[in-house]
Write a structure and sequence with these properties.
By secondary structure, the chain is an all-alpha fold. The protein contains seven helices and no strands. The chain has one domain: TspO/MBR protein (Ferritin). It is 81% helix and 0% strand.
């Protein structure tokens, strides 16, 4: 199978978008709060099940790569342009909510508001995955770790809000 340079560029671009959105969200949160996210996280009272701070950039990098790969798969489907546009609408919406979460949680230190954002994020990711599944199941399956992480992150966010009121 020969892959064109155009397709390679399209894939790289698809993966870079979520990676850049995650990075920019983190940078902007630091600018808003004046504290970097690892320091802020370290200073919180955490539940027993909270992972060390080093886990987050590793997990998010993997998840963003999977997200970008799944979006590339969807964008590469030539079958139904209307379904693709609809599915990608939810992809972009969940990316926006993902971007907003870091600003709320770390930037403005609004842990409850961030939790509400995360609940909406999870709902829209589930819709996105359903829409992706209808187009290409593999694209949906690539987002299962993201769903599981969001559930875990939601529980962690709740406890961080509750403990640190």
């Amino acid at each position: 199978m020969i892959v064109s340079i155009k397709e390679v560029k399209k894939y790289i671009f698809s993966v870079l978008i979520p990676l850049l959105i995650g990075y920019l969200s983190n940078v902007l949160a630091k600018v808003i709060s004046g504290v970097d996210t690892p320091t802020y996280y370290q200073e919180l009272i955490k539940p027993e099940f909270a992972p060390p701070g080093i886990v987050f950039p590793i997990v998010w990098t993997i998840l963003f790569i999977l997200m970008g790969t799944s979006s590339y798969i969807i964008l590469s489907q030539k079958k139904n342009e209307l379904k693709t546009k609809d599915a990608m609408f939810y992809y972009w919406l969940q990316l926006a909510l993902n971007f907003l979460w870091s600003l709320l949680f770390f930037g403005f230190q609004l842990r409850l508001t961030a939790l509400i954002d995360l609940i909406f994020l999870l709902v829209f990711v589930l819709i996105m995955v359903y829409k992706f599944y209808k187009i290409k199941p593999l694209a949906a399956y690539l987002n299962i770790p993201y769903i599981l992480w969001l559930i875990y992150a939601g529980i962690l966010n709740y406890f961080l809000w509750f403990i640190n009121k």
